[in-house]
Write a structure and sequence with these properties.
2 domains, 27% strand, 3-stranded antiparallel β-sheet
Length: 135
């Protein structure tokens, strides 16, 4: 799995994965043009869309209504070191689900790849590459 992020200028970046591309930017007060989500918003979007995928998959599996399923994700900014913490996932499901299926949706969301990645922090290696200067 790979994404490539290219600097477009100022604080804008193009993020590419397979044949898809999205923009990342900053709000105007941070020197951006507000033409895309910020990296922290993209992280919340990743968690929320993953949770929504698993919730909808559960509902589809049991032939229950999926339309109207909505996921909201919030987090708090922390310092020392700068990070996000206290994530909260709120899922609206279609009306009329019995408690058994509401619990089933919750169990399904706990299978989300992004959720589990955040619960079990991965190792991260950073490599810096710079073209060598010709003499």
């Amino acid at each position: 799995m790979e994404v490539v992020v290219e600097h477009l200028g100022a604080v804008q970046f193009e993020i590419k994965a397979r044949q898809h591309a999205i923009a990342s930017d900053q709000p105007t007060e941070n020197g951006g043009f507000d033409e895309g989500m910020t990296p922290p918003e993209l992280l919340l979007a990743s968690l929320g869309s993953c949770a929504a995928f698993y919730a909808a998959a559960y509902l589809r599996k049991y032939k229950l209504a999926e339309v109207g399923t909505k996921v909201r994700v919030t987090a708090e900014k922390r310092k020392d070191p700068a990070r996000l913490d206290d994530f909260h996932i709120s899922i609206d499901v279609p009306a009329g689900l019995d408690p058994k299926h509401i619990e089933g949706v919750e169990r399904a969301v706990h299978q989300c790849l992004i959720h589990n990645t955040l619960l079990h922090p991965p190792t991260i290696a950073i490599e810096i590459h710079s073209p060598s200067l010709a003499h």
